[in-house]
Design goal:
By secondary structure, the protein is α+β, with helices and mostly antiparallel strands. Helices cover 50% and strands 11% of the residues. Strand 8 and strand 9 form a beta hairpin.
Length: 742
């Protein structure tokens, strides 16, 4: 679970005569993650595409273009089908002709419609002006300019100019200027005024009538466009299944045809390399050998061990028939040795076998089915490298618990569970399915903590039913249980210490690949500082922390139902600091020892030594969100039901009205009478507040508890050991959805 599946590098070597058959067989197996040949071997070149691949690629481009034009989606697929080359040759040409003709017609109609709409948009000022369009142009001795501007300013400018006789026609802000002057001179004169010229449309007569003609033409074009789109939709219904199946068949053929581009080839032979899960190698070898027989040699040339760099630098011994002393693998190929073992991009595996490159193995995360939904949340940061710990299981073990602790309500938990199940079972997107799975786990823990808190949508009746009025845990809002708020603050610090320690322990194990000293200085140093500082804090030495963090007398740990009785750690004071009179605790020796080790590993990191303090303090958000969400739910219920206070406890007015509480405990006990007890109108408003309020708490639970929990994982925990950058396992093959070979 903490490591990916172990991968092995496989070499497939054979004569070019068997290359196409080998490609077919390997593609059908869908196991080999192919390594691309980097051209580093003397005497070997990257292969060429199979004959006919260019034609297949051209057809694939055509099919995808037709799918785009027809807006084909996977819902249009219909049943799977057998698609032959002859069917593609005949039907594709027919469909392409019909679709292109209709698409051209649609483009023409759209262009015409766009032109008419532009004309309609330009007509509004001329309709407002109300002058026939043919009267605004075509004069020998007059110049006419129409535009938008200030008529008084235009008149003043023209009066002061050299323009002779002129007249203005104005409506709203539209102005038509008629002048006995050259048009250029008129235009120059108008430069001094606020005026934006408009082009006079080509039509004649009344602009309102012309606008009506344009509107009618627009309707005709929209009708034509609708007809063409209906015809295209009919083509989509008729041919969508064929196009999807044809695309799949052509994509498979193109994938096979381009495969040799990743091979190392000579005039007569080829070598293909790639990665497969080690446990599937025997099945791969048997299946491929049964298909191609002795035409190729299949060798497992290395088994990649895990290491902190994500590269296969350490390998298990693998017995091979082909490959020896510095030659490319494959007994059927006589290849020259490279010039040196340090030649760029060459990796020498155990036994001196030279591989195609130094690429790291692809990563297949090895997690149980219940944990896999959390893999997508890890990939938000990055996919784990082959050699580093996969944090998915740690994420699974902590995030739902953090979330459930912060919300802690059976009602909200059941809703989160239902929402998560809906996403997981109803949507097709893998990412949304994963979020649904995470939501189910988070909802389950929220419901579990809700039972322990005895709360259902913020009401405490669940505690009465299940626990007889004394649930094992309280959130700490009520005065009589306020000590729990301090307890949760303390528990948040303890949880943060353990969580961060786990991260640095993972880092310590990974750094052991570089040697024990590196692990101690780079990771052990942080562990020493973490435990030294917080052990000192929880010892209470020299007033290092408030009493409630470590003394049972404060009532937090001794007074709760668990009776933990935690009285803090022993101070272990060694001596008194000269000049200060303060004792020096042995716990601080651990802290300073870690600081020295950190300086030996990387002096620059010393400036971040306070991370052991601030990172743990960051976990106090667990207690903060717990109290905030509990307070919001309480306020919503308070407004609707009302509540009274008695002996430091709040009780909602569910079975009784405020009058009963006043008679029993006095008017001062009433916190709020409740909208449900204040008349029909107030009760209706109260129902609205109740529903919207709890929905708001539900949503904010995701955006606050969810995001805060994720932040603790990504920033505080992952940052201690996780880098990411692994490659996804992408085997050479194709998962058929629309076609069948039978």
């Amino acid at each position: 679970m903490l490591r990916p599946e172990k991968m092995c590098r496989v070499s497939v070597t054979g004569s070019k005569r068997a290359m196409e058959q080998t490609i077919e067989a390997v593609h059908d197996l869908d196991m080999l993650h192919v390594t691309e040949y980097d051209g580093s071997w003397d005497g070997f070149e990257p292969g060429n595409s199979l004959t006919g691949t260019n034609e297949v690629s051209d057809k694939l481009v055509t099919v995808r273009s037709l799918q785009s034009i027809l807006d084909v989606s996977e819902e249009d697929a219909g049943p799977t089908r057998v698609v032959t080359d002859e069917a593609i040759e005949e039907q594709l040409d027919e469909v392409r002709t019909a679709v292109n003709e209709l698409d051209d017609r649609r483009d023409d109609v759209r262009d015409e419609l766009r032109a008419v709409e532009d004309q309609i948009n330009t007509m509004a000022p001329f309709v407002a002006l109300g002058i026939d369009l043919d009267l605004l142009r075509g004069y020998d001795s007059l110049s006419v300019v129409v535009g938008e501007g200030d008529s008084d300013e235009i008149e003043a400018v023209l009066t002061e100019s050299d323009i002779g006789t002129f007249e203005l026609f104005t409506e709203d802000s539209v102005v038509a200027v008629f002048a006995q002057a050259d048009e250029d001179a008129l235009q120059d004169a108008l430069v001094g005024a606020t005026f934006s010229r408009l082009e006079v449309p080509e039509g004649d007569g009344n602009p309102t009538s012309y606008l009506e003609e344009l509107e009618h033409e627009k309707q005709q074009l929209e009708s034509k466009l609708s007809t063409v789109e209906d015809e295209l939709n009919e083509l989509r219904l008729d041919h969508a299944g064929f196009l999807l199946a044809a695309e799949e068949k052509l994509a498979i053929e193109a994938q096979k045809g381009e495969a040799p581009l990743t091979f190392a080839t000579t005039e007569n032979a080829f070598i293909a390399e790639g990665w497969i899960p080690n446990e599937r190698y025997e099945a791969f070898e048997r299946a491929l050998s049964s298909t191609v027989g002795d035409a190729v040699d299949i060798d497992r040339i290395e088994i990649a061990e895990y290491n902190s760099e994500g590269h296969a630098e350490s390998h298990e011994e693998v017995e091979r028939e082909g490959g020896n002393g510095g030659e490319p693998v494959g007994s059927s190929v006589d290849a020259p040795e490279p010039e040196s073992e340090s030649q760029p991009q060459e990796t020498v595996a155990d036994g001196g076998v030279i591989t195609m490159g130094d690429d790291a193995p692809p990563v297949i995360q090895d997690n149980p089915s219940g944990v896999r939904p959390f893999e997508d949340l890890v990939e938000v940061v990055n996919r784990p490298k082959y050699g580093e710990f996969d944090p998915t299981v740690a994420f699974f073990l902590t995030f739902p618990a953090f979330f459930g602790f912060m919300i802690g309500d059976l009602g909200y938990g059941l809703l989160y569970l239902a929402l998560g199940y809906g996403l997981y079972s109803k949507v097709d997107s893998d990412v949304l399915k994963s979020l649904g799975g995470v939501g189910m786990w988070a909802g389950g823990f929220t419901a579990l903590f809700g039972v322990l808190y005895g709360e259902f949508f913020g009401l405490h009746q669940l505690g009465e039913i299940v626990w007889g009025g004394s649930p094992p845990m309280h959130k700490g809002l009520q005065p009589t249980y306020s000590g729990y708020a301090l307890a949760w603050l303390t528990m948040s610090l303890l949880a943060g210490t353990v969580h961060l320690a786990a991260g640095w322990i993972f880092d310590f194990v990974e750094n052991l690949n570089h040697g024990l000293w590196d692990a101690i200085t780079e990771s052990g140093s942080w562990l020493l500082m973490l435990f030294g500082l917080w052990a000192w804090v929880f010892s209470g030495a020299n007033g290092a922390a408030p009493d409630f963090l470590y003394t049972a007398e404060a009532g937090v740990f001794a007074g709760n139902p668990y009776a933990w009785g935690f009285t803090g750690l022993p101070a272990i004071n060694l001596f008194t600091i000269p000049g200060l009179g303060a004792p020096f605790s042995a716990w601080l020796i651990l802290f300073f020892a870690g600081l020295v080790l950190l300086a030996l590993a990387d002096p620059i990191e010393v400036v971040e030594f306070l991370n052991v303090l601030v990172n743990v303090l960051s976990y106090t958000r667990l207690a903060a969100v717990l109290l905030a969400k509990a307070g919001m739910a309480f306020v919503v219920n308070l407004l609707f039901f009302g509540a009274y206070s008695h002996h430091g406890e709040f009780h909602f007015l569910i079975g009784h009205g405020p009058e009963w509480a006043i008679s029993e405990y006095g008017a001062e006990a009433i916190m709020f009478p409740g909208l449900i007890h204040s008349g029909i109108a107030a009760a209706l408003v109260g129902v609205l507040i109740l529903v919207i309020g709890h929905l708001l708490v539900l949503v904010l639970g995701i955006t606050s508890a969810g995001l805060q929990g994720v932040r603790l994982e990504y920033v505080e925990f992952f940052g201690k050991f996780f880098e990411g950058g692994g490659k996804r396992y992408n085997p050479f093959g194709y998962e058929r959805n629309y076609t069948t070979e039978d």
